[in-house]
Amino acid sequence: MAGKDFAHIQRPFEKVDDSGQWKIWLLACLVVAGFLASFFAGFYVGRDNTGQLADSSDEIKILKDQLIQQKLSLEAAQKALVAKEDIKSSESETSKVGALTFYTDLPKQKVLPEAIAEPEPVSVKADTHDHEQQIQQIIEQELADSPASDQAQYLLQIASFEKDADAQKMQLRLQKMSLKTSVQKVNVPSIGWRYRVVTTRALDKQGATDLQQQLKSDYKLSALMIRQ
Fold this sequence. Notes:
By secondary structure, the protein is α+β, with helices and mostly antiparallel strands. It has a domain at 130-227: 2-Layer Sandwich (Alpha-Beta Plaits). The chain is built from 4 helices and 4 strands; from the N terminus they run ααβαββαβ. It has helices spanning 19-111, 130-145, 164-176, 205-219, and strands spanning 154-161, 181-188, 192-199, 224-227. It has a 4-stranded antiparallel sheet with strand order 2-3-1-4, with helices on both faces.
């Protein structure tokens, strides 16, 4: 081997088979092409579906709005119906209460009529009839002409009334004026029963005359002398 020249030894040539690599590249290209085709197909389909979904969402929104409007209209109609029923019920109850009140109050009005207020005396002037005054003046004139008249006792009649209630009211008014009086029930001829408001203390004629003038000047009262 020492005599061999290795520089001139030819290396055996190995032939490489390229058919396998070409198949791999072809397969890769097909895969990429298929992927791209799938991508673009999905893109177009998705775009169409998106348009359809958009249209569907608009229709759904319109339907929702219509449902809301119908619901509001229904609620308004229900409220109006309830209000109408309440008004009818209120009117019915009012008419019932009015009828009950009428039938309840009517017997009371018949059984308990309103009391008629008695009129107040217009003034403190004696409420006497002309005939009674004439009789009293005749009596006083006869007493004045009598010889024993100086020994008689007198009361002063301040007022005379047909009703005892009026006489009591006058007595209270005179009491507030510090005048002591009493009420006498007498039967006056040709007139009937009268309630006289008279002084409580009997006086002689001169004392009765002085008191009569004092009542007229101080209290504006016209009194008549009554012999006891």
